[in-house]
Amino acid sequence: MPYVQSESAPQASRPAESTEKFTGTAGEAARVFEKCAFMRHCRDNAATLPEPFWYALISNIVLCADGKEQCHACSRAYTGYSAAETDAKIAHAITAAKPHTCAYIQQTMGFNCGGCMAGCKAPIALAVITKADAVKNLLEADLEDWIDVFADAQYLDALCYAKAHMPGDYARFKAHVKGKVNIPDLERCLMNMSEPFYRRGRTDLTCWAEPFDELGAQILH
């Protein structure tokens, strides 16, 4: 059995919080399904899933970039599926933005996560787009005119971050643009930036919202 009855679940000294406010930026639901046994269980057993498990799934998945579609896709297997009822639950979950937490799923709902080492506060954290994700996506994209890179503050900030924290990706970027951009000029440009991204902790770049702004490292670590 992929989960155990609640009486055999780990006992907490006090009841686990069922939800916490989510304000992050999440990617596609596939990121959660890939890494979370509970989410996979809910998806794969949707035809017979108890309502509390179904809503725990909805409360997390709906916050993904493709959340609405995935909520309906997971719900259709249930014989009593209703598009209208599912839409109502989706609307409620979006407004609340409070995904069921891992502690609640294990301690109160009785799901055995099988020694999960993710270390996150809620399954949705597994879909959060990190700064590294955003930088990597940006650096893998091609500019129409590479000369524009010297005037593109967002791109230069991404390069500063990559150079400081993602040396492998930065090296691949330089290999990719060799012959399109004067690398020594680019290196000097980055070196001369007075307040590079990785020093000032800038968070105003597109899609670079800190994961779980208020929960921060509590969610991801």
Account of the 3D structure:
- The protein is mainly alpha-helical and about 220 residues long.
- It folds into 2 domains: about 5-130, no CATH class; about 130-200, no CATH class.
- It has helices at about 30-35, 35-45, 50-60, 65-75, 85-95, 100-105, 130-140, 155-165, 165-175, 185-190, 195-200, 215-220.
- Helix 3 packs across helix 5.
- The longest helix is centred in the middle third of the chain and has 14 residues, at about 85-95.
- It is elongated and about 60 Å long.
- Residues about 1-15 and about 195-220 have low confidence and may be disordered.
Briefly say what this structure is.
It is built from 12 helices and no strands. The chain is mainly α and 221 residues long.
Give the tally of β-strands: 0
Task: Write the element-wise H/E pattern from the N-terminal end onward.
Answer: HHHHHHHHHHHH
Largest sheet: none
Rounded to the nearest angstrom, the radius of gyration is: 21 Å
- The secondary structure category is mainly alpha
Per the principal axes of the C-alpha atoms, what is the gross shape?
elongated
Low-pLDDT runs of 5+ residues are: 1-16, 194-221
Distance between the termini: 28 Å
Q: Count every helix, treating DSSP H or I runs of 4 or more residues as helices.
A: 12
State the helical fraction: 40-55%
- Strand percentage lies at under 5%
Query: What is the average of the pLDDT values?
Result: 77
Number of domains: 2
